[in-house]
């Protein structure tokens, strides 16, 4: 799917960034207003496109939501070739540290989608697919790390990936509810410690009783 490029640009190569820009606006608007509160008129105003153009390429508001959710799984952070498996795993986990407005906006969007998916089977199916792809990607990074002897040989990728992502997701939600520099720093430190434990084969520590990451 492509969208009209910026005025004066006529190549297909210019259109894909335009599509990504539209979906970034969609995630921000849903994060701010919720799925029910976002309107096509708001999307048109934010993107400078007509509602007719948006409807033509995405179908309707539901199509926009599904496209925004699908785009999150198209190129996971940490999937770029180059660098060690642990370095790529750190890049992926960095997307759970809300140290930029773009990341915070995406996680606000995700919370809205997660809440809506409890009542919407299609959304739930798409979100499950995204989570499955993400978990498999983490498993592949861990397996590669074992092969390259960056991660201890007895670490089981399937066993390690799910609790690691559960920890990261919980920390992202915590940062939404406590949006301060200390919480963000502690989340980053906790995830860095988790990568170290994956590499050495140590079990991930249980979350503290109050739900906050342990002091490092």
Model regions low in confidence, pLDDT < 50 over at least 5 residues? 1-14, 206-211
Shape: elongated
Q: What's the number of structural domains?
A: 2
* CATH uppermost class of the largest domain: Mainly Alpha
What's the quick description here?
This protein has 216 residues and is mainly alpha-helical.
Describe the protein.
This protein is mostly helical. It folds into 2 domains: 12-71, Orthogonal Bundle (Arc Repressor Mutant, subunit A); 85-200, Tetracycline Repressor, domain 2 (Orthogonal Bundle). The chain has 9 helices and no strands. The longest helix is centred in the middle third of the chain and has 27 residues, at 121-147. It starts with 14 loop residues before the first helix and ends in a 16-residue tail after the last helix.
List strands and helices in order, with pairings.
Elements: H1 15-33, H2 40-47, H3 51-58, H4 61-71, H5 85-94, H6 101-117, H7 121-147, H8 157-177, H9 181-200
Helix pairs in contact: 1-2, 1-4, 1-6, 5-7, 5-9, 6-7, 7-8, 8-9
Please supply descriptive tags for the structure shown above:
216 residues, mainly alpha, Arc Repressor Mutant, subunit A, Tetracycline Repressor, domain 2, 65% helix, 0% strand
């Amino acid at each position: 799917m492509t969208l009209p490029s910026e005025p004066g640009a006529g190549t297909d190569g210019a259109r894909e960034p335009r599509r990504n820009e539209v979906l970034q606006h969609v995630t921000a608007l849903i994060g701010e207003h919720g799925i029910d509160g976002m309107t096509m008129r708001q999307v048109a105003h934010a993107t400078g496109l007509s509602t007719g153009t948006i409807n033509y390429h995405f179908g309707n508001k539901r199509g926009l939501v599904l496209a925004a959710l699908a785009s999150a799984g198209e190129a996971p952070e940490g999937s770029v070739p180059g660098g060690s498996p642990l370095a790529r795993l750190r890049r992926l986990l960095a997307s759970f540290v809300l140290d930029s407005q773009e990341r915070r906006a995406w996680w606000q969007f995700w919370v809205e989608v997660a809440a809506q998916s409890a009542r919407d089977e299609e959304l739930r199916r798409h979100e499950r697919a995204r989570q499955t792809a993400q978990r498999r990607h983490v498993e592949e990074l861990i397996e590669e790390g074992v092969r390259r002897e960056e991660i201890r040989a007895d670490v089981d990728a399937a066993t390690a990936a799910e609790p690691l992502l559960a920890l990261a997701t919980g920390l992202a939600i915590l940062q939404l509810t406590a949006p301060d520099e200390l919480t963000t720093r502690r989340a980053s430190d906790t995830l860095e410690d988790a990568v170290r434990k994956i590499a050495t084969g140590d079990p991930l520590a249980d979350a503290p009783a109050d739900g906050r990451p342990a002091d490092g």
